[in-house]
Amino acid sequence: MSKLDMSSMYAFHDALRRELRHIAEVTERPDDDPRQVLATAVGWELFKKALHVHHVAEDEALWPQMRAALAGRPDDLALLDAMEAEHAAVDPAIDALDAALADRESGPARLGELSDALAAVLTGHLKHEEDAALPLIDATLTEAQWQQFGQASGQRFGSDIPRVIPWMLDGASERATAAMLAPLPEPVRAAYANEWVPAYKALDLWAARTGA
Fold first, then answer.
1. In this structure, are residues 76 and 163 in contact, taking their beta carbons and an 8 Å threshold?
2. pLDDT digits over 49-98, tens only?
């Protein structure tokens, strides 16, 4: 049984998988220009920003703690190397999609293939992290260290928190939602329920924005 509550990590991973499905759907739409839709969609912008901040937080605030705790354990350190290498492989897949979105000639024809490539590299990483890295984190870090990583992640999101938390919890279980909100001060929980969620629901994440 896990000693650390990793509900927020799994909720974040599930949110990424959900958005990968939306990206695949956009690139397969026969009745719209997928290049225009994806290039201007709030969902694509939010997906990229959330993923980037999440990986930076892991690289800067999680893996160094793990490396210090696992010194002298080469097999476990190799797993952390793999996590960082997998992070490094995601950005080029996103950059390739953005380059295709900017290419009016051959870009649209490549979007489906590039979307599949991004999904493959990211879902592979998420599964590897869940199967191997999260159990190692659970066995290695203290509750205080895990909370420190969570706080570091929140700080890196900064002013985007009102969008990121409803995005993370879109479709999440009641347990995951409760675990995510429990550490927050009551005014923040009230803002989440009364302001953040309604504003998030008003967004059409995967529609083209005119004039963008």
1. no
2. 999 999 999 999 999 999 999 999 999 999 999 999 999 999 999 999 99
Full DSSP string of 116-157: HHHHHHHHHHHHHIIIIIHHHHHHH--HHHHHHHHHHHHHHH
The class (CATH top level) of 7-158 is: mainly alpha
Distance CA 17, CA 14 (A): 5
Total-model pTM: 0.93
Q: Which amino acid is at 129?
A: E
| Burial class of residue 3 in the structure, from the number of CB atoms within 10 Å of its CB (0-12 exposed, 13-18 middle, 19+ buried) | exposed
**Per-residue CA distances from 99 to 28, 82, 102, 106 (Å):** 18, 26, 5, 10
Q: Is 207 exposed, middle or buried (0-12, 13-18, 19+ CB in 10 A)?
A: middle
Sketch the domain layout of the chain as residue ranges: 7-158
Q: What is the DSSP string of 18-46?
A: HHHHHHHHHHT-SSS-HHHHHHH-HHHHH
- Residue 25: CB partners within 8 Å, gap ≥ 6? 206
- Mean per-residue pLDDT of the chain: 91
Neighbours of 20 (CB within 10 A): 19
Nearest partner of 100 among 209, 167, 179, 27, judged by Cα: 27
